[in-house]
C-alpha cells in the first residue's frame, strides 16, 4: 500500500498537495456478522454515537464510542526508523494515539504496537492519558516522537501510547486514531498533529480535505494543505463554524419530498469523519426513517432491499443550499442482515454528519477561515 501521494501543479512546488490514501476495509460489524457474533456484541457494547461529543460520558479526557461501521483508515508512521500504523483520521477528536508494546488487552494483541526502544527519537512525556469511551476506555501515557503523515515529518509530536483498550477495539481494522479537531478539545493539552503541521510550515494552506469513495476499496484520500479539484465538481459552499471546538455548523432543516421532517428552525451539526452514520435526536431520526419507509428493528432502521430505487431523497439544507442524499447513498446493504438506513439515533440536540454524508460531499476543513467547505463528490 502506498503511504502517500504528492500531487504538484506545473506552476510551483508550493502548490503540492500532500495526500494520504485511505483504505476502505471491512467494518467491525461485518467481521462480527461473518463470525455470527454481531447480536451478542451489539448488546454487550451498545453504540452511543454522541458519547464522544458529550462530556457527561467522559470521566477524563475526550470520550469516544464503539462505532462498528467505521471503514476508512490510512497509514502513518511514528519513530526513527518508522513504525507503521493504521489510523482513523477523525475530525471529531483531537488526540493521536496508537497501541504500545505495554498493552496486553485483547484489542491490542491483533494490532500493530509501538515499541519505544526501537526509536532513536522517542522521548517519554511521563503524563498519563485517559480517554473514556461510552462502554470502556483507553488508558496509557504521553510521549514525543517524529510522526510522518503523507510524507510530512512532524518532529516532537506528542501522542498517546495505550496500555489498555476497551474490548470493542479488538474487531476494528485501525490500530489507533489521529484527531483533526481543534486543540481546545485535546485530552491532556496535547497539541494536535495538524496544528504542528501548520506551526512548522509543512502545509501551504492551513486546511485539509477529505474524499471518501462510495463503492471501491481504493480512491479515498485525506489531502493536507490544499483542495484537490479531481474529487469534486460544481461550486464549493463555504459554511462558517458555529463552534470552534469540533467542525460544527448550523443546518437549516432536513426535508423529504419537500416536507420538513427534522431540524425545523435550524439545528447544530458536526461534520465528523470518525462517525459512520448521520446521527440526530431520536424523534427526528424516527421522522426521517418513517418518511423514507424504514422500520425499527434491533436498533437499526431496515428497508426492503428491492425498494431502494423507489425510496425518496433526503435533503439537508445548509447555508441556503440543498445537500441531497439519494437512497443509494443512505441505505447500506449487508449479506447477513439485509438493508438498513444510515440514519441513527443520537443525543438531545446535536447532529453528526458522518461518512454517509461525506461520501456524497467532498469536505474541506479550513483552520485559516474557521469554515467547512462542501462540494459534490465525484
TrEMBL record:
Residues 1-16 form the signal peptide. One of its GO terms (molecular function) is aspartic-type endopeptidase activity. Its EC number is 3.4.23.1. Belongs to the peptidase A1 family. Residues 72-375 form the Peptidase A1 domain. It comes from Channa striata. Shows particularly broad specificity; although bonds involving phenylalanine and leucine are preferred, many others are also cleaved to some extent. GO terms for biological process: digestion; proteolysis. The active site is at residues 90, 272. Disulfide bonds join 103-108, 263-267. Keywords: Aspartyl protease, Digestion, Disulfide bond, Hydrolase, Protease, Signal. SUPFAM superfamilies: Acid proteases. This is pepsin A.
